[in-house]
Design a protein that fits this description.
Layout (H helix, E strand, L loop, with lengths): L11 H10 L8 H14 L5 H13 L18 H13 L4 H8 L3 H4 L1 H8 L4 H9 L1 H10 L10 H12 L3 H16 L7 H11 L2 H12 L7 H17 L1
Helix pairs in contact: 1-2, 2-4, 3-5, 3-7, 4-5, 4-11, 5-9, 5-11, 7-8, 8-9, 9-11, 13-14
Length: about 240
Amino acid sequence: MTTPTPDAPTSTHHLLLAALRATALKDMDPSLLVHAIDVEADARGIDRTDLDHALAVASYAHLEQRRTQRGDQVADPYITHPSRNTLRLLRYGCTDAAVLVATALHDVVEDQPDRVVTLLGGSDALDALRRHFGTDVADLVAAVTNPPRDPARDKAEQYAEHVTAAIADPRVFLVKLADFVDNAGSLKYLTDDAKRSKLAAKYAPLVPIFARAAHHHGDRLGLPPEGMAAIDDHLRAIADQT
């Protein structure tokens, strides 16, 4: 009679992956978000050298910034926002390294250009990103960076025009979508009714714009069916709360 061989223990990586996928992004602190990104990227076979560097650059650039306080939650360090965006794209099934790196860096040019240049050099923040992360990444960040506003025109209208034009490119769409889902999806946590109403009025018209663009881009987004379904679910949830 042969003695049964005990089942091999499940690997640490698989245990972490399962636990982290079951954890809501809003419940993760900056440290866990970075670990979750690493574990998810490894699971999808992504070389994360540039992604790790991008997250470190973004952490340095946004070091002194905080997110708006949501309900009884403390004001998060700003890096939680680009980190959540990056992890959300990975959960959608995005494996485009340039898109992921640009997502991690998407706010540094608009918010902290001087800190980027101080850290990386270059003639300006976009030039610094181009030198260290390549033209694809710099172009994606430039595309999602809000252009200067015309003070004589409605701000929400100009924002909608910028978003509509930018997401005509499928890779820009992914970066901008992750940003939109995180920003618009957090409105339910705001306790300031006036601010929530103002932002809801800004974001509500964009839901059908993103939905149409997702349908139009389709397979060009490079996402699996479950990722496309998750995008639909997130946009519907935002529509319901705005």
